[in-house]
Amino acid sequence: MKIEKRDVLVIGGGAAGMAAATELKKRGRDVVLVERDHVLGGILNQCIHNGFGLHHFKEELTGPEYAERFADLIHEQHIPTHLGMTITEIDTREAENDQKARHRVYGFSSAQGMVCFDVQAVVLSMGCRERNRGNIGTPGTRPSGVYTAGLAQRLVNVEGYIPGKEVVIVGSGDIGLIMARRMSWVGAKVKAVVEIQPYPAGLTRNIVQCLNDFGIPLYLNHVVSEIRGKDRVEAVEITPRDGSEPFVVDCDTVLLSVGLVPDTEVAKTGGISLNPETGGPLVDYRHETSVPGIFACGNVLHVHDLVDYVTEESIRCAVSVDDFIGEEPAGMQIDIHAGANLKYVVPGRMILQGKNHLYMRSLIVSNHSEIQLTAGERVLFSKKLRHVQPSEMIGIDVPEEILKDIGDGDHLEVHLKEMNHE
Hints:
The protein is an alpha/beta fold. Helix content is 20%, strand content 35%.
């Protein structure tokens, strides 16, 4: 078995992994990148629509163009990559002779067989996967013609196949909305988008550009209560949640856009603690997991709404990995929790001397709200927000000057408070 001894192993060659690897290389670290696909870029390669890069590159790019920018950097910096390789296990070795523990990570590919990476630090950047019909328990028969929206996107944009002619989309997540437009462009008839919540799950701009512009109906507060068909999908039954009578829509294809979950199978082999709210690893302010020397960033940590934010977070993670290898002290930290109207806050710990950037998800839709950072009854910091909804991530920088007012015994929470509009 081949053994590679490096400073850092980055697992995943999508937006997060490439951003972290290039930043680490820039800082002089010996980094190696592993990707299970045969090309770099991850999900970006099938996202041929534009809208990427406005924050990071200050220009509008397609997904493949965004991926190519970082893939070019990987090649220019001569970062070694292992494509078509699957990571099977993370084994953390005990520290010896007052040295830091090292990690042995095992990967397999048909080209190289088994490879062991002996590294000081690991960056988890494996992204996320789609929830499927089994996750949501939709009743009915099991005909062909039921796809996740991401799979359908790959079939159309990469493989050149059109999965169906008359389509119903379950869930209003962004991939589903984008596929509603894409299927319309290739000549299919998108008959409905059905969302169980009373508000859309995707970005507002995608509702406008992908549904409204094409006259595609969006049924909020409805569920697909049955899928019908023997060999192929023939129809779906749609039931309003207000108790009204269900109705039937004929179709030959159902696309599921019912959420994403972090891909944490590899993380579990390393004994890493997971966040029950995000599904990703629990991390501190520098993105270090419960296992020292293993870090996480991007969609494996929590599902982002924009790839530019994935890049931003991954660069910060890489800076932390560099500090870890350089034995920079972590500094005093304190736990922080999600309070009223918030699903989660990431990271789960703040540093008391330094910069903290927090990400969170709203549980409400509101045009007049305020983020409040509290310690018990004290409001340490507040920021008004013009609009919040569950599909759009909230990011805030915590002012350093308020940190002096926080003590070890304080219980920190972030709340989203609805404000009266006068």
